[in-house]
Task: inverse folding
């Protein structure tokens, strides 16, 4: 067999993509591509000429799942450009917003997209007949994440209140304390879920991955930190573009990112957990022992466990933060418009998210650059799929295709986020 | 009961997936009593391609491939529902007239972008659920009604009206903030003004719109006409019908 095998649509991922495997003369797999055909929406061009204060709302619409991360990244990048230092309270509330986003996004992926694979089912709704627990657990955790986002951001999807210099409305302290009850319940749900998962045997796909994440001396990082690549390389967020290169490929509307030496790398929960294992909340750490997740873990399928452990971690951190929280009245910070440049890196649920803006003298966007975690992971996923199909005998088989899809699902792609090609040339007849 | 469940399909065109997520958030399992999910690639494998009672579409028609897809979706769906501002009006990606800016330095083979627009530019739509994101309760009301063969009733009142009902201090009066609440269709409970942010018109025009006087108030606040027209286009594409005023 030579040429290309029939392209297979990848289900249960966010967005539209096909998987292609190419074969050489000898019939061996020689290349695997993930063809992203998701429509590009040209956000980096859309926001040119817009006022800085509009940007967080606009970029939120890049993604219907990790909107909070896009808002926080853009706000922080613009604040850096404008030379604004926000209050400690704003930082804390932003952290809670990020935690809410992590919890809801991980719950969506783990319970709704990944769990059906554990049972060989088509969807979580088929599962309900045999085992209704998963869907109830999924909804419980997801709704707690949404509730947290709603309380801090004013709305569960595309929050309203986060803005440059702080929040348009601060949450009421008594309302925040009220959701503690829900958070305690979610904590119990995770515990049950971990008990069941402890007896579960996940498949293995081992590879020496290059992890790139934020790290911090003081905490498990979400909204800021030092970029750490592999074991030894650390650098501040401003140098991010010096270390990675983005490349456009003809078979996809999303770009691919590589390290400077051309090698692939991964971002996201598996990378984050491995690199920040010692900063985990004690409760989450205990769960990771039950789940036999130890740093360093190179099994790609353990990404699912990493999501569960992170859900627990972010729940515990939210509980701790809200229990201690006292909301003070404070005004939005004022700022002066000046031509400047600012960038920020945050940990979105799927990994490193980079925003960079150039502002002109009228406070309008001159240039924008956004690098999403899915762009970083796509090149690694193509490599992983190729390695897998090369390792087995008959790779045209349907079951093999299913395993390829499962490997791809480990990355929790968000393709809507990733389609950032800037220029498209279509052949005119 | 189960035999009469509506066969539902969920499609995504150019969008952020937020509306599909909203669909999940409003409690999909509780809807399963009267709907049967036949096609929903985000949530299930082995999707059924065939005829559906209800087709839900998120996203704007943004590529040549979408044009073909939406026509097929229309053929297969007895009722077609546009989900969210992108499907209704084209959404944010339709706010700038030309951002494709083709440059012959990069060629892509998988898709062919066109100017984004709402799905009703190509096919007739039966129901519109407007907003960015749409309101979950409106979808539940709609699906409930459809499963019983009834036509749902949505009140046509403005965001401004809903804002007043809640006695929210007027952002235009107090802060001279450019708020589109008076000309925007309500149903959202005036959530943005409630959170201290002026209405951005994401649900499109209400039944009674006075564009020229709104434009005047905006220019009193120092918002020039071109900025005003941008705001109208921002989420709602051509829906406000500002083209005539714009000249």
Result:
């Amino acid at each position: 067999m030579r040429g290309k095998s029939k392209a297979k649509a990848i289900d249960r991922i966010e967005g539209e993509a096909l998987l292609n495997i190419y074969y050489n003369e000898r019939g061996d797999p020689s290349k695997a591509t993930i063809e992203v055909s998701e429509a590009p929406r040209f956000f980096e061009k859309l926001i040119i000429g817009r006022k800085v204060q509009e940007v967080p709302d606009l970029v939120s619409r890049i993604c219907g799942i990790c909107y909070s991360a896009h808002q926080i990244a853009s706000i922080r990048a613009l604040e850096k450009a404008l030379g604004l230092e926000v209050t400690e309270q704003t930082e804390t509330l932003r952290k809670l917003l990020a935690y809410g986003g992590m919890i809801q996004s991980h719950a969506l992926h783990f319970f709704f997209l990944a769990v059906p694979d554990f049972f060989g089912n088509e969807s979580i709704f088929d599962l309900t007949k045999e085992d209704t627990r998963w869907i109830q657990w999924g909804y419980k955790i997801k709704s707690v994440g949404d509730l947290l986002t709603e309380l801090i951001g004013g709305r569960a999807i595309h929050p309203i209140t986060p803005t440059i210099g702080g929040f348009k409305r601060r949450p009421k302290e008594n309302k925040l304390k009220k959701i503690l009850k829900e958070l305690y319940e979610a904590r119990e749900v995770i515990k049950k879920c971990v008990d069941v998962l402890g007896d579960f045997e996940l498949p293995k796909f081992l590879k020496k991955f290059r992890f790139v994440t934020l790290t911090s001396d003081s905490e498990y990082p979400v909204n800021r930190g030092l970029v750490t690549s592999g074991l030894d390389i650390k650098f501040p967020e401003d140098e991010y573009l010096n270390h990675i290169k983005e490349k456009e490929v003809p078979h996809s509307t999303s770009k691919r990112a590589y390290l400077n030496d051309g090698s692939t790398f991964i971002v996201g929960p598996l990378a984050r957990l491995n690199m920040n294992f010692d900063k985990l909340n004690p409760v989450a750490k205990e769960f990771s022992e039950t789940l036999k997740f130890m740093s360093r873990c190179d099994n790609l399928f353990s990404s699912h466990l990493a999501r569960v452990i992170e859900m627990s971690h972010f729940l515990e951190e939210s509980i701790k933060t809200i229990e201690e929280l006292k909301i003070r009245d404070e005004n939005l910070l004022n700022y002066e418009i000046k031509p400047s440049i600012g960038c920020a890196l945050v940990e979105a649920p799927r990994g490193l998210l980079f925003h960079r803006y150039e502002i002109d003298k009228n406070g309008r966007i001159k240039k924008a650059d956004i690098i999403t975690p899915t762009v970083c992971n796509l090149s690694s996923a193509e490599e992983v799929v190729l390695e897998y199909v090369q390792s087995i005998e008959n790779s045209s088989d349907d079951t093999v295709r299913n395993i390829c899809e499962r490997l791809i699902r480990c990355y929790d792609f968000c393709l809507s986020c990733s389609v950032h090609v800037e220029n498209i040339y279509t052949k005119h007849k | 009961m189960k035999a009469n469940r509506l066969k539902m399909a969920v499609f995504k065109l150019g969008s952020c997936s937020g509306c599909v997520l909203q669909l999940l958030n409003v409690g999909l399992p509780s809807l399963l009593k009267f709907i049967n999910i036949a096609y929903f690639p985000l949530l299930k494998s082995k999707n059924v391609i065939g005829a559906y009672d209800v087709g839900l579409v998120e996203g704007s028609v943004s590529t040549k491939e979408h044009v073909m897809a939406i026509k097929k979706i229309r053929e297969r769906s007895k009722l077609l529902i546009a989900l969210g501002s992108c499907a209704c009006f084209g959404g944010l990606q339709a706010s700038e007239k030309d951002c494709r800016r083709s440059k012959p330095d990069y060629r892509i083979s998988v898709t062919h972008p066109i100017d984004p627009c709402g799905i009703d530019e190509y096919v007739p739509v039966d129901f519109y659920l407007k907003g960015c994101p749409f309101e979950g309760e409106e979808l539940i009301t709609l699906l409930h009604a459809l499963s019983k063969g009834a036509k749902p009733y949505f009140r046509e009142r403005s965001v401004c009206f809903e804002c007043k009902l809640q006695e929210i201090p007027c952002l235009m009066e107090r802060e001279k903030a450019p708020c589109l609440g008076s000309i925007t269709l309500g149903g959202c409970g005036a959530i943005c003004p409630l959170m201290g942010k002026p209405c951005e018109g994401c649900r499109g025009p209400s039944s009674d719109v006075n564009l020229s006087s709104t434009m005047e108030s905006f220019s009193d606040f120092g918002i020039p006409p071109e900025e005003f027209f941008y705001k109208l286009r921002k989420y709602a594409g051509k829906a406000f019908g500002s083209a005539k005023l714009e000249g």
User: Anything to note?
Assistant: DSSP finds eleven helices and seven strands in chain B. The longest strand of chain B covers residues 6-12. The first helix of chain B runs from residue 18 to 25. Chain B touches chain A through 61 residues (CB under 8 Å).
